Amino acid sequence: MAAPSVESSSSKQVLRILALHGYYQNERSFWERTGALRKNLKKRAEIVMISAPLVIPCTDTDSREEGGDDPREDPRAWWFSDPEESSFNAMEDAKSCSGLEESLNAVAKAFSELGPFNGILGFSQGAALLAILCLLKQRGDPRFQFDFAILVAGFKSSACDHAEFYKEPITVPSLHVYGDTDRVIPGEMSQGLASHFVDPVILTHPGGHYIPVCAAQKRVYFPFLDLFRK
Questions:
Q1: Tens digits of residue pLDDT in 43-101
Q2: Does residue 142 have a cis bond before it (omega within 30 degrees)?
Q3: Catalytic residue among 63, 98, 124, 174
Q4: Which of 21, 16, 40, 23 has its CA nearest to residue 31?
Q5: Is residue 9 part of a domain?
Q6: Of 21, 60, 157, 182, which one is the catalytic site residue?
Q7: Closest listed residue to residue 191, CA positions, set 173, 178, 182
Q8: Which of 64, 91, 123, 125 has the fewest beta carbons under 10 Å from its own?
Q9: Are the C-beta atoms of 35 and 94 separated by less than 8 Å?
Q10: In the annotation, is 124 catalytic?
Q11: Residue 54 host element (H or E)
C-alpha cells in the first residue's frame, strides 16, 4: 500500500484508537511516553489506553530494555514466553507461552466497555499482539471490530503456540513504523511482521525503540488516518 498524500481534513471525524503498550509498561507509563503523539494527532484521533492483564514479577529486571519504568510502577505483559519465570523475550523461540487468552479477553472487554474503536495502535509487544488481533478480525471474530492497525516496533511472535496466526496473509490496512537503530526490536523483525500483511504502509525513522513524531512521520501518519475519517 503506497503512503497516501497529505490533505486538509479539519472538518472530518476524530477517530478513536485503542493503544496497546509494550512489555514492562502499563497504560499510565505509555500515556506519559506518547504525549507528543497524542498532541499531534488530537485533531484526527483520540487515543484510549488500557493496561495488559499480566503482572510482571519485579525480579524480571532484565526486561526493562523494552522501555519500562521503575519495576515498582506496576509493569505489565500481554503474554509470557517463559511461563515458569513469568517473563518475556522477543528473541526467544518459546515452545510454550501463557497469557494470550487473558489479553484477548482484556482487549475484548475494552471494545465492549470503552469502544467502539476505529483502529488500534500497538507498540513493541503490543504491536505483536495487534497483528494477532488483525488475523482474528479477518477470521470473523466478532469481539474485534476495527478498520486499521498501526504497529510500531512490531515483531512476529516466535512462540510455537502462536504459529497458527501467521499462516495466511493479513488484509487489514496497516501502517508499520520502526527505527533503523532500534536495538530492542531490530528493524528486520518489524519487516518480518510487515511481510505477513497485504500492501502494508512502511515508515522508517533514524531513531530507536520509541514512537517518532517528527515532521517526516506526520507526513505519513496524517494521510494514513485520513483514509478512515468520514
A1: 999 999 999 999 999 754 444 444 444 445 899 999 999 998 999 999 988 888 999 99
A2: no
A3: 124
A4: 21
A5: no
A6: 182
A7: 178
A8: 91
A9: no
A10: yes
A11: strand 54-55
**Residue with cell string 519465570:** 85
* Number of domains composing the chain: 1
Q: Determine whether 182 is an active site residue.
A: yes
What is the reported pLDDT for 174? 98
- Domain contains 8: no
User: Is 1 inside a domain boundary?
Assistant: no
Furthest C-alpha separation in the chain: 52
Phi, psi of 125 (to 5 degrees): -60, -30
Q: Alpha-carbon torsion 65, 68, 72, 77, what sign?
A: negative
- pTM flag (> 0.85): yes
Of 21, 162, 196, 209, catalytic: 209
Supply the DSSP symbol for 152: E
The pLDDT, as a whole number, for residue 10 is 62
Whichever domain contains 145, its CATH number is 3.40.50.1820
Q: How confident is the model over 140-163, as pLDDT tens digits?
A: 999 999 999 999 999 999 988 899
pLDDT of residue 152: 98
Positive/negative CA dihedral, 211, 216, 221, 224? negative
Per-residue confidence (pLDDT) for residue 3, from 0 to 100: 52
What is the structure's pLDDT at 63? Answer: 45
Beta strand residue intervals within 73-198, DSSP E: 76-77, 119-123, 148-152, 174-179
